[in-house]
Amino acid sequence: MRVRFISARNILEIGMFTGYSTLMMAEALPADGRLVTCEIDSKAEAIARRYFAESPDGHKMTIRMGPAFETVKTLSDPLESKSCDGFHARTRARGMLRLFE
Prior knowledge:
Distance between the termini: 27 Å
CATH class: Alpha Beta
Radius of gyration: 13 Å
Largest sheet: 4 strands, parallel
């Protein structure tokens, strides 16, 4: 998986649906790795939280509810300091490129 290949430690994900990709990326992270996922669908959040709670890698994942553009502005280090070394988007949202400004 690309997360392991690039030795990612901090990943930002936009949109997680059921959380399957999130779980796979978290599994590939080192023990102190961190994955923050932004989601707006409360039904998707409920499904994902159930699976995250059962995962041995659940401690690596944080769900931030709300529009990604607003959520990203509130993230704390290490993601805020631009040290995010992995990015995954499950969305076709207009304006997503604004996240990289």
